[in-house]
Amino acid sequence: MTGTPLLSLAIWIPIVAGLIVLATGSDRNASSARMIALAGAILGFLITIPLYTGFDTHTSAMQFVEKTRWSESFNIYYHLGVDGMSVLFLLLNSFITIIVVLAGWKVVTEKIAQYNAAFLIMSGLMNGIFSALDGMLFYVFFEASLIPLYLIIGVWGGPRRVYAALKFFIYTLAGSLLFLVSLVYLYSQGGTFEIAQWHLLPLPLSAQTWIFFAFLAAFAVKVPMWPVHTWLPDAHVEAPTGGSIVLAAIALKLGAYGFLRFSLPIAPDAVHAWSGLIIALSLIAVVYIGFVALVQTDMKKLVAYSSISHMGFVTLGFFMLNAIGLEGAIVQMISHGFVSGAMFFCIGVMYDRVHSRDISDYGGVVNTMPKFAAFFMLFSMANAGLPATSGFVGEFMVILGAVKFNFWVAFAAALTLILGAAYTLWMYKRVIFGAVANKHVADLTDISAREFLILALLAAAVLFMGLYPLPFTEVMHSSVDNLLQHVATSKLP
Amino acid sequence: MTLAELSFKLPDLLPAGAEIFLLTMACAILLIDLFVKDKERTPTFALTQFTLVVCAAFTVWLSSGDATPTQTFSGMYVADFFGAFLKLTLYIVVCVVLFYARTYMLERAPAAKGEFYSLALFATLGMMVMISANHFLVIYLGLEILSLSLYAMVALQRDSVRATEAAMKYFILGALASGLLLYGMSMIYGATGTLDITRVANALGGHGTGHLLTQTGLTKTIHDAAISANAAAGGNKMVLILGLVFLVAGLGFKLGVVPFHMWIPDVYHGAPTGVTLFIGTAPKLAAFAVVMRLLVGGLATLAGDWQQMLIILAVLSLAIGNLAAIAQTNIKRMLAYSTISHMGFMLLGLVSAVGAGVDDAAIKAYSASMFYVITYVLTSAGAFGMILLLSRSGFESEELDDFKGLNKRSPWFAAIMMILMFSMAGIPFFVGFFAKFAVLQAVVEAGRVWLAVLAVVFSLIGAFYYLRVIKLMYFDPPEDATPIEVPGEIRLLISLNALAVALFGIFPQQLMAMCFTTLQLSL
Which residues of A54-77 are buried (b: 16+ CB within 10 A; e: fewer)? Predict the structure, then answer.
């Protein structure tokens, strides 16, 4: 391992690149703003590759650790590190950032510098969240990441963007403020903000329960879990394409990641006591939200609900507390990052041409956009969880875990395979197949080289992960085992 | 008493050098201004700033040596690190405020161009006296110097009905508050037989303000012993508590916390924005200092009692301040209610010292409040500065809607305002977050988790109206396309102001450590 502070670079390169882009100023320098943004995004991605190649899969210890005192008065540290559960998210996040910059290349024509800067800064902050090992550092990144997304939705979003942006901000802030109080409480008990120390801190059941629910408030909103999911469809529908991609691919993972890093190991006894509740909520998300997705007429809303349903799968995998379920859930998170990002991009491609997201405005797109139709097919299949795509791997593992846990839970979870196929493929059928529905569709032009590149990159990721998931799962074994040990150990004093 | 003690002895004037210089200069500037022909009053302005710089240099020099607090004027005045640090902050704030307000006040109060500066200096003097007071009457003296200057400043725009009304309201309510404070002081006097803060503390059986008597020892000790016996004789507790209630009410008035907040929205709204900027910033520092001197320094033994009172004030302020701010359409009124809620939040730190002792945990709680008040003043100076900056001759930029589409008109100023608003809302990486965090930490350490939860719930409500400003600037199209013309130095200054808010938000350590150390050395 070299002495290069890779994690710091992964955080700060995008942020600095974002500030440079911001400095290019007005839209007169649009092309340079785009080029710098792309260069920053690519550089940010390249810097994360050694994190994977240099990763030691045999240990559950934190790697690439950096630790500097941040503030003595507050006793907080700039403490970074990754383990098997977080390293993949840095890669995913940096990869998606490239996609997002490319996705906005031609489409965004107003305040280009601000647009790209917001995404780059966001990307850096997200890397910070996934690599923070100090509770406060985590919180600071966690909350700061609200700002760029708030602006992205509010400035470049659709007609009801103001409402959606505010709803997004207030919902997530509400959760995270309670989270803050629990962090401060944990500090008052343990005398440290180091997350790893909190994992060992004995706490009475009552305190664990309070903490568990405070964490739940923060993370459930982010995931989002039923019944606090209502901000997501609004945010997605109103967000610009890039915003939707980041929201679905990365932002939703923050909540789930929080469960892994905080809830499960810090309050294990409360987790055991309340896991039934979470599993119930997850199943409601999987099944009920699946039905809700079925009746949507707006494509973005449909995919947004499908995201909630898929994330329900993730929380389900976590709280069954067995290795295969947990790993499956993490794989599902990564896969969902690619697939939902791709789905939103595909919808964006059509929206840019027709300026409508209503399924009824389309029909027979395959006749005018054959290349696009092929890609869209692949991603729809992946969204439905077809074998050989990434969507299958995670879902299959979670269902395996569920079978171990309880047959009926597994049965309910498996419904998603039917429901997912139903809402995704039915939408696909109505939009893509059939006769050319109207003049707009007849006028469509097939995807450009830029769009082709984006779709090809995403398709490669989806297929690779579906066909050969080992590189993704092998990094997390040790860490997941370690986590499960923590969860299995009672922390009652 | 011997003859020697009766003879007049000139007190050591050096520790109060900054106040004496400032007073001299304020009078001189008042006179010099009569002969200044310049329409822009540049010499007056320059002299005022010069005075502040010299005061700052003097304060730095004075505190660079010995760390032990020095008392003078028979213990009525104290020069310590806590005071020096607050004063330095005060000079900086007043200096920045005068820069921001300069052009605005020239246009709005043509009849009193130069007086604005003299009044500002007198107000500053009052605040300095408050910060360094070690005697109930000196506190009152400082408070009156400050208040009278402020009443006059509010009324500077004498043709404006709103401003004169605000001045009247401020005067009447302010006088009432001063009365309450005096009444409380007299009761404390009745119970303890002294007005000297150190002696009050001793009389009540506390350890005093730490820097125990520097002057003639023996007689005083005997005297104190007599007072202690007197206080302990019983029957006085009732008087003490009653006095405390009046003190807290008077202080609550000056801090502007619910239910003594009525004047804040009207005065903030009615006063010329340049004066609102002044009222909304520097006096908070002085009020904080007085609270520290009176309650923590003098009445620490009664901590259990005043903590309960302050908790109620704090919670009410958080609730009413944040809820009422949502309903405002005028940004000055909105910021007025926001001030109320911020002062409430600040009080939470003050009530979080466990017991009456001054150990490290207690100092930590107090320094959280100090950090809060300093950073709040910094942020609010920037916010009012932005309002001033958007207004121009004949146009007040007071309504929230005037901020519409600011991002289109000037992305830079929009970014500055965004930083300030996010800081007030307590979002990281801005300093407001660490201020809230420090206070929350103190509250939780004191075992009041419920209070912390309540505080964050109200912060969430608060976030709503700060976000609305950002929404107006970024999401809405501009209604007014007039280009924003701002003098270079103001642009630089307000940029630095916002930068400070961001930088302290990333590196809070120095400021926090500073607050802690000064309190440790002074309490």
Answer: ebeeeebebbbeeeeebbebbbbb
**CB-based contact B456 A72, cutoff 8 Å:** no
Rounded alpha-carbon distances, angstroms, from residue B64 to A183, A195, B16, B395, B516: 39, 41, 15, 46, 17
Beta pairing, strands A63-71 & B70-72? unpaired
Asked if B460 lies within 8 A of A143 by C-beta distance, the reply is no
Residues 39-78 of chain A with CB under 8 A from chain B are 70-74
Query: Residues with Cβ < 8 Å from B467, sequence gap 6 or more?
Result: A150, A166, A169, A170, B421, B425
pLDDT over 90 at B142, yes or no: yes
Q: Which is nearest to A377 in space by CA: A473, A305, A462? A: A462
Contact B440 A181 (CB under 8 A): yes
If you measure CA to CA, which chain B residue comes closest to A187?
B441
How large a percentage of chain B has pLDDT more than 90?
A: 37
Q: Is A76 helix (H, G, I), strand (E, B) or coil?
A: strand
User: Can you say how many angstroms the Cα of residue B424 is from the centroid of all Cα atoms in its chain?
Assistant: 17
**Inter-residue contact A221 to A171 (CB < 8 Å):** yes
Q: Which helix (H) or strand (E) holds A82?
A: strand A76-82
In terms of Cα–Cα distance, which of B282, B396, B405 is closest to B331?
B396
> Do B420 and B382 form a contact (C-beta atoms < 8 A)?
yes
3-class SS at A128? helix
Q: Which of B406, B448, B474 to mutate to test the interface with A (most CBs of A within 10 A)?
A: B474
- CA-to-CA distance for A209 and A271, rounded, in angstroms? 8
Burial zone of A404 (CB within 10 Å; 0-12 exposed, 13-18 middle, 19+ buried)? middle
Q: How close A334 comes to chain B (CA, Å)?
A: 27
What's the pLDDT score for residue A26? Answer: 66
Say if residue B399's pLDDT is above 70. yes
Q: Answer whether A235's CB lies under 8 Å from A152's CB.
A: no
Structural domain boundaries in chain B: 315-523
Q: Which positions in chain B touch A161 (Cβ < 8 Å)?
A: 475
Q: What is the DSSP pairing of strand A63-71 with strand A76-82?
A: antiparallel
Quick one: DSSP state of residue A489? S
Q: Which residue has the higher pLDDT, B217 or B314?
A: B314
List of chain A residues whose C-beta atoms are within 8 Å of the C-beta of residue B407:
111, 155
Tell me, what's the pLDDT at B233?
A: 46
Distances (CA, A) of B482 to B320, B396, B409, B411: 36, 13, 8, 14
Check residue B339 and give its pLDDT.
92
Chain segment B400-436, per-residue pLDDT in tens: 888 888 888 888 888 899 999 999 998 888 998 999 9
For tokens 């059986």, name the residue: B205
A177 reaches B (C-beta below 8 A): yes
Least confident of A163-167, B241-245, B384-388: A163-167
CB contact under 8 A, B474 and A155: yes
- On chain B, the residues whose CB falls within 8 A of the CB of A143 are 427-428, 433
Is residue A344 a contact partner of residue A104, using CB atoms and an 8 Å limit? no
The three state secondary structure string of A263-326 is HHHHCHHHHHHHHHHHHHHHHHHHHHHHHHHHCCCEHHHHHHHHHHHHHHHHHHHHHCCCHHHH
Task: Assess contact for A443 and A365: CB atoms under 8 A.
Answer: no
- Specify which residues B433 forms β-bridges with: none
Quick check: B475 and A178 CB within 8 A?
A: no
Tell me how many degrees the CA angle A278-A279-A283 measures, rounded to the nearest 5.
115
Rounded CA separation A314/A399 (Å): 11
pTM of the model: 0.89
Closest CA to B437 of A63, A257, A137: A137
